[in-house]
Amino acid sequence: MGAPASFTVTAEGSDLRYGWLRNGTRILGASEATYTISATAPSDDGAKFTAVVANDGGSVLSHYALLTVLSPPVIVKGPVATSVLEGQDATFTVVASGQGTLDYQWRRDGVDIAGATGTEYTLRSAGMVDGGATFAVQVSNGGGSVTSAATPLTVRPRPGWRPIAVLDAGGVERIERLGLLVEPAGTPVLLVAGRSGSGVDERARIELRRVTPGGEEPAAPALDAPASADAWAAACSAAAIAADGGLVLVHRTDGVTFTALRSDGGAWTALGPQAGALLVPAEGPAMPCFPPQIRIGKDGLPVVAYVAFPPKGVDPDGVDLVGLQVMRFDGTSWLGFGGVTEVDQPSSRSTDRFALALDAADQPAVAYEAFAFGQSLSGKLVRFDGTTWSSVDLPVYPKLGSPPPFVLPALLSPAALELDPSGRTLLAGTVQAETGRHAALAATSGAWPGSVTQVGSPSIAQAASGGWPVAMSRVQGGVVLLWAEQPVAGGTYTLRAARTADGVVYADPVTGGGTLPLDVDLADPVFAAAPAPDGTVLVAVLGASAGQPAIQVFHLQP
Questions:
Q1: How many whole angstroms separate alpha carbon 322 and alpha carbon 308?
Q2: Which run of H or E residues covers position 327?
Q3: Would you state the pLDDT for residue 183?
Q4: Whole-angstrom Cα distance, residue 144 to residue 123?
Q5: How far is CA 372 from CA 290, 333, 383, 479, 529, in A?
Q6: 293 or 547, which is more confident?
Q7: Lowest mean pLDDT, pick from 213-227, 437-451, 497-511
Q8: For residue 209, how far is the Cα from the chain centroid?
Q9: What is the pLDDT of residue 180?
Q10: pLDDT at 494 (0 to 100)
Q11: How far apart (Å, rounded) are the C-alpha atoms in residues 521 and 543?
Q12: Which of 20, 64, 461, 470 has the least C-beta neighbours within 10 A?
């Protein structure tokens, strides 16, 4: 169709004249031995053409010639967009109809693929480089051709760990705290805090180290001081990256005072009045360090949760009560929310177990243990709604049979907190069982305050028997939960990760099946995690390299 069609008659005689009939009707102007249709149309299909040859002696009709017009093929069902895991085959198919023999030619990004001439094309073992490529097919016959719409191929990375860097301990010989920040472009920045030296030469040191393709570079000047000034000053620290790329650091500068500093790559400067002190406390004894938590709001300003001293009294067991503080920086000063800086007075035995998050309006939520000893268990999730603070109790798990058998009722000890866009709270932590501590996940149900209930099994997997090494990182469609697992018999730790989708754990919660173990031995459960802009999770762990302490940084594809 659309192509020309010609008919020719050969006759003998003198003074010959020619004419042409179509279906018995004379064609005006057709007076040559050859008649041509310049562009055939569907209406020409099946038409009969007859030549009339005449001279003064008479005329004669030829036998008719039947014209068959071939139409281009029609694509009944074209190839569709395809998504596969890295390493899987990607197959595209087409269904077409038409007259005569149909020929096929597949194209990638508009270029013919050699040998791809069937109704199906399969790309074997698709790699990440194939992601984003478009595939189309041209179908042709004698009547013309038609090309399908180009459809894209998506290649998803396989879940797993990918090493990025191995860094030495730097100027911190004994690492006590490891934090992980992520710059807007996805570059990891490590907070490394601890001590170096010994005896009178022992010093506390905090380093912010940016991971680069060639290794690392200082993200800000290191801070150090004689360890005798405050043995806990280095480990009692937290950092975040402001919206403009500046670094914000909060750390203990003496036994009782938290100070906020900012660096744009150069010298640290106090953030706020009173040399950056968040809250100048009354005189009191230096206490063990409970590291603060810091979040950056959409306005680019920090919100900090920390434990303040001196003691506020004693709990039922005679242990000191302390002040759980939540403060925000307004660009000039540090202030409380709703005029309140101290949200509660938990027991000092429990206040290393708290977590901070901000909702869509930059209002804070804090989960914490208030008191946990024997049969006396109390934990809270508090939120500020822009006017007042309100709270809901954390779940207490009753004594359960195996697995896991809980010796006593057990409180969910918070370690990480996230607020999803709908306002629901996701809380990760650990629960004490007879076989050790177990990582657990809980979430609020219904409108706030609702209640906090467990998600899935009350035990996701065995966590480390000492401490509360659980981290949580938000990804699209859910969160990734990470925990340090230690065999019941002791030994080195293994870092495991499991993804949740819509609050439902789809890794096996007891056996660990479906989780992603990291093949690195951890002498201590020291690690940190943070979401990366590309949808992966960045993870930093304190391991060893060539027998020496080393910080290993990984991409985790959930």
A1: 6
A2: strand 320-329
A3: 92
A4: 27
A5: 16, 35, 21, 27, 27
A6: 293
A7: 497-511
A8: 23
A9: 93
A10: 73
A11: 6
A12: 64
Q: For residue 161, give both structure tokens.
A: 């760990």
Sign of CA dihedral 514, 515, 516, 519: negative
Query: Residue 217 forms beta bridges with which residues?
Result: 210
- Which position has the token pair 């007076």? 31
- For residue range 485-539, list pLDDT tens digits in order: 766 555 667 777 777 654 444 343 334 445 666 766 666 678 888 988 888 889 9
Which of 218, 283, 211, 222 shows the shortest CA–CA distance to 251? 222
- Provide the token pair at 43: 């209406």
Cα 144–Cα 148–Cα 151 angle in degrees, nearest 5: 160
Q: Which of 334, 258, 274 is nearest to 301 (CA)?
A: 334
CA distance 523 to 519: 13
Secondary-structure class of domain 74-156 per CATH: mainly beta
* pTM recorded for the entire structure: 0.73
Q: What kind of fold does domain 5-66 have according to CATH?
A: Immunoglobulin-like (2.60.40)
Instruction: Indicate where the chain has its CATH 2.60.40.10 domain(s).
Output: 5-66, 74-156
pLDDT value for 520: 66
Q: CB of 408 within 8 A of CB of 399?
A: yes
